[in-house]
Amino acid sequence: MTAPDSAAISAQRRLVVANPRDVIALHNLGVELRRADRLEEALATMERALALGAVAPETATVHAHLLADFGRFDEAVAAYRRVLDTHPGHIDAHETLARLLPQIGQRAAAFDAYADALARAPHMGALWMSALAAAKDLRDGDRLLDWVAAAEARFGSEPFLGLLAAQAHSWRGEDGAALARLLPVIAADPDNAGAQATLAQLAIRTGDLATAEAAALAATRIAPDEQTGWSLLTVIWRLTGDAREAWLADYDRLVMEIDLDGIDLAATAAVLGGLHRTAEHPAEQSLRGGTQTRGILFDKADPAIRALRDSISRGIGGALAGLSDDAAHPFLRRKRPHFAFAGSWSVRLRSEGHHIGHIHPAGWLSSAAYIDLPSEVVASEQEGALAFGVPETLLGLDLAQRRIIAPRPGKLVLFPSYFWHGTLPFTSTAPRLTVAFDALPVDKSSAQQ
């Protein structure tokens, strides 16, 4: 059964009926259909626009997005490349292609289109910004340093380029070079939260905990809702034996376990399985040995996904209602009766798969919902478990877990986004299937409960 048209779809459809050759209206209709998760109709509409002679790179790029949505990756890659051959500065196509290629086993080619475009259009500042962001997201330190040097040669030194260079040197273990690039950035802009957080990371790794604390506190003062500074303070105060660690990272109280209701786990697992179409994990994400769904999961129209989202919303509401207020606490001070999902996805890990220690810098409330688990994971308290308190390896620390949660099908785990978390590997012929999301507190008018 075809879903009823939204007001936006109806408006564009009327324009198409009035002028069937209006490629702009067809483009806009295709975009709205894709937004409504009506992918077959969207693809047919975009193909009609292209057949009628639509030449805008936006139309061809959305067509490529739709091919990727259907798992037609070879066709999608070819379509993105055709766009960039003609429009080397088209950012949407670049950003999607660079992040898609590692997921289909072609990481070595992830930056080829950027490199070609920068050679053809070296004057485009937006293209340089996009390329640098891609190299940073994919943690390619060599590529990032090369492009920073090229950008500085063309545009001159800028603090954000110095910060990128410092981060790239840090990934490569070159602490001295990282500090040499970082300290001038902080001297020029002491209110740069990213630079202060990077200084804190370097200082932790070199054992200068006083500098690390001062820099992390500065990051939280400058950007109190960004999670990196708080995550570093959980580590610094743990290493120094500061009692504030227990206040900031109360794993017993703020890691909340909930039993989801009103969902058919088998039906949900079947739907999610059909959405895992790539071969490898996103290069910029924390999972290893598995795949992650593309796009925003909770935007899917499938009834099983809607039921899961509704159940999760009820669970979040109940969990938040049971928490006390604390105006000084970075998580509790933002507690509201209403929230909005800021991203949602599914992860399917295969045997020996796991998540490395990480946080969600732009989140507030993060999660793991267990949909389908191997019998070996269900029977164990360790295999495939969710572990808290172990930071990323970049910090060079050997710290034990602060809390371990044994997963069970139908369980939802909620926690502050600055909590370091990862998963332990497991061994099984069956995959480990989960759903995760970030949520942000909002006023009632924009809530998604």
> How far apart are the termini?
26 Å
Roughly what is the average pLDDT, rounded to an integer?
Answer: 96
Number of strands: 9
Broad shape: globular
Order of helices and strands: HHHHHHHHHHHHHHHHEHEHEEHEEEEE
Classified in CATH, the superfamily of the domain at 251-446 is: q2cbj1_9rhob like domain
Query: Could you list the spans in which at least 5 consecutive residues all have pLDDT below 50?
Result: none
Strand content: 5-15%
Overall CATH class of the domain at 251-446: Mainly Beta
Structural class by sheet pairing and helices: alpha+beta
How would you portray this structure in words?
This protein is α+β, with helices and mostly antiparallel strands and 449 residues long. The protein has a domain at 251-446: Sandwich (Jelly Rolls), CATH 2.60.120.620. The protein is 50% helix and 14% strand. Strands 1, 2, 3, 4, 5, 6, 7, 8 and 9 form a 9-stranded antiparallel β-sheet that branches. Helix 2 packs parallel to helix 4 (57-69), helix 4 (57-69) runs antiparallel to helix 5 and helix 10 (159-171) packs antiparallel against helix 11 (175-188). The longest helix is centred in the last third of the chain and has 19 residues, at 303-321. The radius of gyration is 23 Å and the shape is globular. It starts with 6 loop residues before the first helix and ends in an 8-residue tail after the last strand. The mean pLDDT is 96.
Strand and helix map with partners:
Layout: H1 7-18, H2 23-35, H3 39-51, H4 57-69, H5 73-86, H6 91-100, H7 112-120, H8 125-137, H9 141-155, H10 159-171, H11 175-188, H12 193-206, H13 209-222, H14 228-240, H15 244-248, H16 251-254, E1 256-259, H17 265-275, E2 287-292, H18 303-321, E3 339-358, E4 365-372, H19 375-379, E5 386-388, E6 403-405, E7 411-416, E8 421-423, E9 432-441
Antiparallel strand pairs: 1-7, 2-3, 3-8, 3-9, 4-7, 4-9, 5-6, 5-8
